[in-house]
């Protein structure tokens, strides 16, 4: 099975701009990408990075400027089973990813928060992704429409993509890789006073 | 094992006040509680509700006005293995809860978003909870301090407690019980235009 990690190297993590400047967003997003690369390797697979621009990581990188949806659909059409794992799953673990990669089903989906699809496995070349908007329900519907067997993988660690400033708390609490190290080095810590903990700098 | 569901019947879900009025918050929180009661029953256990005021549900209800932390600690001291499951886990499933209840370990924790503890099993009477603030890390530290074996259960469905207006989207996308029915009947739906889906009314 191919394991593909899409990465936006041009203006990554724009929703973090209230908290991190452009250079910091680039560094932090690359730290998360490197964490995800490590996690894929620890499951015994070789990750392939699909990036919108060159990025300096220790893995095979293909540069393609097209949007994610047509790019992934082209790979699915090829017919080789494929896993697509988002580059911002900063608290993913090999155990959680193994549950996805090892699950039965011609379409296996790990839901993300906010109705998204954070990781999926496709073994049916008739299936098509559409990452726009509330993709999780769309993907279940599309899988059923082509008669593919569907499995959901229930994982907090795969459901947690790091998009918005509030998400940084999850990296500080549950992460132990480069992304959490980067945040701590940048001065972030958990502010626990009151009943709503948050990441502060 | 006792399975306890704490419930605040007095001013439930105050963080939802930008979206739901007081009566709606009460109705919605009771719908979530009934969903959690059903899920516990479907695992073959009898839930006990620990409520701050009387609540009309089809289960054993004990009314106790004390804060959650001393209440749960008193139950732990009794020595009977106990599970504490939050009443706002509106997308929990029997399968997810079974992973918690069936896990080995003298302290088994299902992390919640925002550093919380959404469900836990305690089989060591020396352990103490503290639900204040960033409780997840505290609970891991306290478990290790008393020498209890610790397990984490990695579940998106147990990690998703419904606190804030943005969380309603998760109920609409992933729920199939009374809480999602209540939201739909109250006029909520998934607004999918743009890249950030949300629950709108």
Automatic annotation (TrEMBL), chains A, B:
Any one GO BP annotation for this protein: F420-0 metabolic process
Family: Belongs to the CofC family.
Coiled coil: none
Name by which UniProt lists this protein: 2-phospho-L-lactate guanylyltransferase
One Pfam family matching this protein: CofC
Job of this protein: Guanylyltransferase that catalyzes the activation of (2S)-2-phospholactate (2-PL) as (2S)-lactyl-2-diphospho-5'-guanosine, via the condensation of 2-PL with GTP. It is involved in the biosynthesis of coenzyme F420, a hydride carrier cofactor.
Keywords from the UniProt entry: GTP-binding, Nucleotide-binding, Nucleotidyltransferase, Transferase
InterPro entries: CofC (IPR002835), Nucleotide-diphossugar_trans (IPR029044)
Reaction catalysis annotation: (2S)-2-phospholactate + GTP + H(+) = (2S)-lactyl-2-diphospho-5'-guanosine + diphosphate
Annotated GO MF terms: GTP binding; phospholactate guanylyltransferase activity
Associated pathway: Cofactor biosynthesis; coenzyme F420 biosynthesis
Matching HAMAP family: CofC
Assembly: Homodimer.
NCBIfam families: F420_cofC
EC number(s) reported in the record: 2.7.7.68
